[in-house]
Every structure is written in structure tokens, then in C-alpha cells.
Design a protein that fits this description.
about 350 residues, five-stranded mixed sheet, 9 helices, NHEJ_LigD, ligase
Length: about 350
């Protein structure tokens, strides 16, 4: 039986929509029509972050519980007004025509293809070797969760603050979170990727009990993997405001550092879970918290400066270990009790 269909006109472009009543998130009854509605309503803040970034579609034609597939090449049946970027893929040894989601009509069209998740490059076409930002994906190894990610994210922010730089957090919409550092200056992946890797190793050296910089899952139990490898010209990251294919229509949502600190203090992972409705309300209240990532110009520090900071941090950690440990409450109680015994003994004499 054919699903509900209709046509819409968007900015002078007629677009047929199909199977609007198909449930794509069965656990909560969230339909394809609601997916399209979300992306249409979030478009004013999402499109600037998608503009000119080659888009990899992640399609779920049967919903989040069905099969899915990635689609790098723009579908051949696309409307002729969909912009594309003709890019050589060394990994695939061929040219790929990526979709450029630069306008509302294209975003609605990809939504109609059940492209639930939007995965984009850190570069903008045509300057594909020039990332506009650094991205650190904080991935918790069970039983760790986003609460521990918050602690690591604050450490990441602290390191960049030493360089006089700002960083911006967002939830992944899944189990972790990400920290983005806007650059928007002349830099290449040959510079940014080694820096990101060195940064992850620095975090691991400073906090070996809580952070890991290697991808081996066997090393990640109850630790946060600082995934630096996304800083690569052939990698993509989930775009801000993208839905995620989870039980609920959760969203990769920009957050404030106050919210990160609040989550860490409360130790409640649900504090940083946002659905499509939540995110729309947040945008209405706060605007685009990720807007500075588009505009803020920051110079990538040299590896030499990062190494100098690494030595400084290690020195600080060593100084901390030389300090006498603070007595616990139990130790204080025992000391008080012993003091009382000694006082009584003197009186008896």
C-alpha cells in the first residue's frame, strides 16, 4: 500500500514528498513527515553550518531499526537544482559528486530520502585541503558515559584557553560529545591532524586513568577516547543540528560550558540529551550557540608550543604528587579518637 504523498513548493522549486506517514523511529512513533518538518524548521541555523561542505548521506529507508547505507555520490535521480561538488577521492580512486546542502529545498529533499543523519567535511568546497576547524570526538567506553566526557571536554577547553583560544561543545546526539575549535584561517590537514593527535596524547599523558588516545576498544573500558582522527580530508563528522538514528530522534546539539559543568556536577547523563523538539525550543531561546564556529578566526598553535605546554602540565602533575595527601574523614576521626585517649592517659598519671 502506497504511503501518503504530496508536493510542496520551496523557494520556487516544486518537490514531491513520499511515504510521509512511514514511522522511522518506531519506539516513539516519529514519522518521516516529522523528520522533514524538523529539518525545515531547524534550517535557518543548520544551513550555515552545512553550506559548501560536501555531504555524505546516511539513509534509513526502513527506519532506525532497518538497514541503512551511506551515500557519498549524489543520487542520479536528484533534481537538477541540487548543487554538487566534483571531488577526487584518493581512497576510492575516483571522482565523487557530493551533495552541497546550501538551501532549504535541498535539505527537505535529502530528508525525503530518509537521510536522517548529516555527515559533513571539516572543509568547505572547493578548498578541500583547508579545514575551518579542529574537532575532538569524545567517545566514552562503557561504563563511562557523557558525564565523564564533560570532565574531559573541560580539560580540552582549559588547554586551548592557555593559547588564548575558544572552544565550543556539542552533544553527539548519541552517547558522547564533541569539542570544536574554530580556525577559519590559512591551515591545512597536514598541520591540523598532527596537532589534534598530539593534543589527544597530551590529554592521555596528563590523565592516563581517564583518557585514551588509541582506537583499540580493549584500552577504552571506562575511559574517554579522544578521537583526533576526524581531522582528515577524507573523514566526516556528524553536523551540528543533525538527527541521530537512535530510539528517539535525538539531535547533535550545541551546548554551553555552564551546561557541561552542570552535567558533571549532577552526574546525570540525561541532562545533555536533546530531542528534535528540545533543540527547536533551545534555538528559539538561545539562537545558534554554534555560530562562533563559523566566524571566529583563530591561529593554530605550533606543535612546539603544544609540546612546551605538555612539559609544563606534566611538571604541574608531578608537583601535585609531591604534596602530602589530604586526610580523609575517617582518618581525621581516628586521629581525634587517639588524641582523646592520650589526654585521658595523661590525666590518669
Amino acid at each position: 500500500m502506497a504511503g501518503k504523498k504530496e508536493s510542496v513548493e520551496i523557494q520556487g522549486k516544486t518537490l514531491p514528498l513520499s511515504n510521509l506517514d512511514k514511522v522511522l523511529y518506531p519506539a516513539v512513533g516519529f514519522t518521516k513527515a516529522q523528520v522533514i518538518d524538523y529539518y525545515a524548521r531547524i534550517a535557518p541555523v543548520a544551513l550555515p553550518h552545512l553550506k559548501d561542505r560536501p555531504l555524505t548521506l546516511k539513509r534509513y529507508p526502513e527506519g532506525v531499526n532497518g538497514f541503512h547505507f551511506y551515500e557519498k555520490n549524489a543520487p542520479k535521480h536528484r533534481p537538477d537544482w541540487v548543487e554538487t561538488a566534483h571531488i577526487w577521492s584518493a581512497g576510492n580512486n575516483r571522482w565523487i559528486d557530493y551533495v552541497l546542502c546550501n538551501e532549504l529545498a535541498t535539505l527537505v529533499w535529502t530528508s525525503n530520502l530518509a537521510d536522517l543523519e548529516l555527515h559533513t567535511s571539516l572543509s568547505k568546497f572547493p578548498e578541500m585541503q583547508r579545514p575551518t576547524m579542529l574537532a575532538f570526538d569524545l567517545d566514552p567506553g562503557p561504563p563511562a558515559d557523557i558525564v565523564q566526557c564533560c570532565e574531559v571536554a573541560l580539560w580540552v577547553r582549559g588547554i586551548f584557553e592557555r593559547f588564548g583560544m575558544q572552544a565550543f561543545p556539542k552533544t553527539s546526539g548519541s552517547k558522547g560529545m564533541q569539542v570544536y575549535v574554530p580556525l577559519n584561517t590559512a591551515v591545512t590537514y597536514e598541520q591540523s591532524k598532527p596537532f589534534a593527535h598530539a593534543m589527544a596524547r597530551l590529554m592521555e599523558a596528563a590523565h592516563p586513568e581517564k583518557v585514551v588516545s588509541e582506537m583499540k576498544k580493549s584500552l577504552r573500558t571506562n575511559k574517554i577516547f579522544v578521537d583526533w582522527s576526524q581531522n582528515d580530508d577524507h573523514k566526516t563528522t556528524v553536523n551540528v543540528y543533525s538527527l541521530r538514528a537512535k530510539d528517539r530522534p535525538t539531535v547533535s546539539t550545541p551546548i554551553t560550558w555552564d551546561e557541561v559543568e552542570k552535567c558533571l556536577k549532577k552526574k546525570d547523563a540525561e541532562v545533555l540529551v536533546f530531542t528534535s523538539d528540545d533543540t527547536l525550543k533551545r534555538v528559539e531561546k538561545f539562537g545558534d550557540l554554534f555560530e562562533p564556529v563559523l566566524k571566529l578566526k583563530q591561529k593554530l598553535p605550533s606543535l612546539e608550543k603544544l609540546d612546551a605546554l605538555r612539559q609544563e602540565l606534566i611538571g604541574e602533575a608531578q608537583m601535585d604528587t609531591r604534596k602530602p595527601p589530604k586526610p580523609t574523614a575517617a582518618a581525621k576521626a581516628r586521629a581525634a579518637k587517639m588524641a582523646g585517649v592520650r589526654t585521658k592517659s595523661r590525666k590518669a598519671r
